[in-house]
Amino acid sequence: MGQTLLKNGYIVSMNETEQVYDGGSVLVQDDKILAVGKVDPKLVAPDAEVIELNGRYVLPGFVNTHVHTSQQISRGVGDDVDFITWLHKRMWPYESNMTEEDSYYSTLMCCLELIRSGVTSFAEPGGQFVSGMVKGVTEAGLRAKLAKSVMDCGEGLPKIWQRTTDQELEQQEDDLKRYHNSADGRVQIWFGLRTIFNNTDDLIIRTKEMADRYGVGIHMHVAEAKSEVEYTKAVYGEPTVTHLNRLGVLDKNLLAVHTVWLTNEEIRMFREHDVKVSHNPASAMRVLGFAKIPRMLREGVCVSIGTDGASSSNRMDIVDEMWLTSLIHKGWRLDSTVVPSEDVLRMATINGARALLDDRIYGSLTPGKKADLIVINPHGPSMMPVNDKIAALVTAMHSTNIESTMCDGKWLMRDRKILTLDEEAILKEASARGAAIYDRAGIHLPDRFPVTKIAD
Q: Who's near 358: CB < 8 A, 6+ residues apart?
């Protein structure tokens, strides 16, 4: 790959001192960052590609810590319906009728949106076909932690998903042995736990044991809904997080998603055990509630940002999620000072890398780390005038301001053109596959207004 020098930009490093270099540069050597800030000309090879930034921003690539790639082609299937309808009449029928090839194209569609919004690394909480996800991510050029959606109990599960604890663990172990650290290490396999509704204590405990044995993480929806906490209190006599703590699952390799219904004591449990949190503001606003993110940040809990699935929030755009994060906690707390822009940027970069157990590898523009970065052009009516250059990245930026995305030293998008995938071909194929799944699943969305089809 050689060298690439990005010069004369506004470099937001997110390193240990959170240093910003106005008029600075970033030198990339193959897949790693060689120098940041004032780059010694002696380090620059004669044949290096030199990119004049003219004041554009360079940031670490964003990290999306919770996105359902398998739900990408189900966008809109859950709009304006109650949770039970969404789950039992829309999502479960839809996902249970997907094939491995459907999962592959859904993943490609998701990767397109992630790349365009500046994401270079993400975590998938679980579809049914890890093989299809691996194929899509490998081709897209992104970095990912992929897991299977794991369920060994629960009412109403489609027959095809009714599997034993041993079957679910064996499948995950097989996926890990086949795909972990593939695509030059960009693709890794984690263990998944869907929800406490669908996971026995035996599965949860054994999953933790296996994750520790293989040195990987666990991705789980935790204290997501009020009904979940009511269920765990009725069945186990204690709320979800307290129960997981008693099982010995709270640990540094647990990525807990949503975490809306936590007590203050449970937040302290997260801090003490270094549990990582993925905050998904858009899907939470739809039906779940408001997580205690300001308190978590004050307590020192590692909070990151995720978009959830396209059937939950419709937008796999982490820039939108950053903006929402900056707003909703101010609103429900009636305090305009909470969760400032600096916190949001941390959540989307270095905290995201830490949540995925990779902060030594990426998450900041630091010499020796992987060259995962984005170039942002603030020129245009949505961001200008830029008076507060850091706040503007959260409060004013749109994903269309992201010009270029690099992962592992390779450009995935350059000047808004996707380089690793055939975008139009994927859009066409994925749309057709989505419609076919609707038909197989017997899902028919009603017209919201009278529709008259006009023949030519």
A: 121
